[in-house]
Write a structure and sequence with these properties.
Shape: globular
Strand order of the largest sheet: 3-2-1-4-5-6-10
Order of helices and strands: EHEEHEHHHEHEEHEEHEEHEHHH
CATH topology of the domain at 4-196 and 226-253 and 298-317: Rossmann fold
Number of strands: 12
CATH architecture of the domain at 4-196 and 226-253 and 298-317: 3-Layer(aba) Sandwich
Distance between the termini: 37 Å
CATH class of the domain at 4-196 and 226-253 and 298-317: Alpha Beta
Strand content: 15-25%
Helix content: 40-55%
Low-confidence stretches: 344-356
Structural class: alpha/beta
């Protein structure tokens, strides 16, 4: 069996990966998470009792702790999903993003390098370090048919994307300089169950549910490619286990929409599944707010490489994925309400600040 260590495993994408590994695939998984605001152990509850599951609360910036975990649990693969990932937060406080995304990746790479050097020849051949990144490192695209490929030059424009770009470069350098067997992936915007409530899609769903304003930056014209999180989890496990060492893979849903189109689609689903008491459409709650600084116009992923080499394709369309996501949030108030009301009382969450 392949034992996988997932850093940031209590986060949105990380927990989806862990639920796939420990649940459907029945493989052992070591979850490492600092449990910051975005980490939530309840997202791991469906698999926390599975054989081979282990959770360790640690910070990837602690190199010694990471090495101790590696030596104790002896994973075959490390998947690094630990990151600060919210653009608005990076604008307000970039220091934490530099610390976790850059310094933390460095510390984890050094721990992995020491661990790798200690392995016997058979274990060294099996070991992989998979670094998970974002399409935002490529900058922005015009409103045409161009897409990001693995060869697109980096041009990050926010503190978040700059910190992720730096971490990507570190991973590649540790491969070329030290021979650490790495694979990398860059994904488009994820959405789905267990999504942290400050991000665009869950924010709109929950604000609509509570008849609060649905904030949209500018005119809502910014375009994103959307990827259902469970499709992404399958792609990540595929890359980690079968991707070519030293290569990067773009993962996208091929589902481009403007932010306004996303909000309107959610409103239409809410009109069907949870009509307003007044009978008025949810789209009447849409409120346009001041755009954020440096808001990239468009992202779009060309996922030809992962499809051709590894046979991965997304199973969900945006329509089917949004339907499942709205249904999940309507059915899982016990998961989102403590986050939305207790841990974030008095903050921007649910106000006129749009996320995503």
């Amino acid at each position: 069996m392949t034992k996988i260590m997932v850093t940031g495993g209590a986060g949105f994408i990380g927990s989806a990966v862990c639920r796939l590994i420990a649940g459907e695939l029945g493989e052992p998984v070591i979850v490492v998470d600092k449990l910051t605001y975005a980490g939530n152990l309840s997202s791991l509850a469906p698999v926390s009792g599975k054989p081979g599951y282990a959770f360790v609360r640690e910070d990837i910036c602690d190199r010694r702790a990471m090495l101790d975990i590696l030596r104790e649990h002896r994973p075959d693969i490390v998947m690094n999903l630990a990151a600060e990932s919210h653009v608005d937060r990076s604008i307000d406080g970039p220091g934490e993003f530099i610390q976790t995304n850059v310094v933390g990746t460095y510390a984890l790479l050094e721990a992995a390098r020491t661990y790798f050097d200690e392995l016997d020849e058979t274990a060294r051949k099996a070991f992989r370090f998979h670094h998970i990144s974002t399409d935002e490192v490529f900058g922005q695209l015009p409103l045409d048919d161009s897409k990001f490929t693995e060869a697109t030059p980096y041009a990050p424009s926010s503190p978040y994307s700059a910190s992720k770009a730096a971490s990507d470069h570190l991973v590649r350098a540790w491969h070329h300089t030290y021979g650490l067997p790495v694979v990398l992936s860059n994904c488009s915007n994820n959405y789905g169950p267990y999504h942290f409530p400050e991000k665009l899609i869950p924010l709109v769903i929950l604000n609509a549910l509570q008849e609060k304003p649905l904030p949209v930056y500018g005119k809502g014209a910014n375009v994103r490619d959307w990827l259902y999180v469970e499709d992404h989890a399958r792609a990540l496990v595929t890359i980690a286990t079968r991707g070519r060492i030293g290569e990067s893979y773009n993962v996208g849903g091929n589902q481009e929409r403007t932010n306004l189109e996303i909000v309107e689609a959610i409103c239409a689903i809410m009109d069907r599944l949870h009509p307003r008491a007044s009978g008025a459409p949810h789209r009447e709650l849409i409120q346009f707010v001041e755009d954020r600084p440096g808001h990239d116009l468009r992202y779009a992923i060309d996922a030809t490489k992962i499809s051709a080499e590894l046979g991965w394709e997304p199973a969900e369309t945006l329509d089917s994925g949004l339907e499942k996501t709205v249904q999940w949030f309507l059915a899982n108030e016990a998961w989102w309400r403590p986050i939305r009301e207790e841990r974030y009382a008095g903050t921007r969450l649910g106000t006129t600040k749009q996320a995503g």
